[in-house]
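Let's sit down with a protein and look at its sequence and fold side by side. Please make up or recall a protein chain and show it to me in full. Label the sequence line and the structure token line clearly, so we can match residues to local backbone shapes. Go ahead whenever you are ready, and we will take it from there.
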Amino acid sequence: MTVLLATWAGPLSQDFFRRAFAAGTAAAIAAGLVGAFLVLRNQVFAGDALSHVAFTGGLGALAFGFAARTGVFTATVAVAVLLAVLGGRARLNDVVTGVVFTWLLGLGVLFLSVFTSSRATGNGAGAVRVLFGSIFGIDQATAAQTGWIAAGVVVAMLVISRPLLFASIDPGVAEARGVPVRALNVVFLVAAGVMAAQLVQVVGALLLLGLITTPAATAQRLTARPWRALAASVAIAVATVWAGLWLSYLRPSLPPSSSIVATGFLLWLAVELSTRFRLRARQTVPV
């Protein structure tokens, strides 16, 4: 424990790292909760679409002279509602998600063209922050805002978690029992949209999906029990952010967003290979 505290003493003595640590931890808790349900409900494609919404919304705002954060939040929440309304009653329709996804990519290319041709000279770093995040560069107000937004997402998820789990496992029976399946889907996707918009600050739009789904996928390989998988997803997401921030502090040439996602991937790979090895070993044991 003494060695662990000494290892973190240096980074936590820096104001920028404390802000990144607090904001990253809050965002990771929200990402772990939302990501666990995205994986359970087979809506990872929707998470990918929301990451591109963040990219398109941020660039659109920059292209027309607004703050990137405004465009990211407006676009992700609006598209989350659109997907929920146009999708199925219990789960999203992949065809609808795919159509919206390609439309968003087209808008993103358009906004990127407008931005680079008319406004990039005035705010060239804005597009980079949207794409790759800038957690070490956030100020105290942004860190506090991240904490409050993440707390709101966590509270919303905890309130709907039990009926949402029921609707995720067996939507037909849940609807027959009076569970508001469609309303839950809307609330969940809006929470996912808000969380995705906030994670742009942490890992950027391009790597956002990695922090949403990788901890949840790892947790599902560790346990088949939904509530344990939910808790494990949160714990893994937080540990991934902590490890990524620490690595980037020790090696400043490593972007924190890349370190966070790479750490999560390596952990998932280790768990996946270990699980497959154990299953293969059981199958080869003579009866």
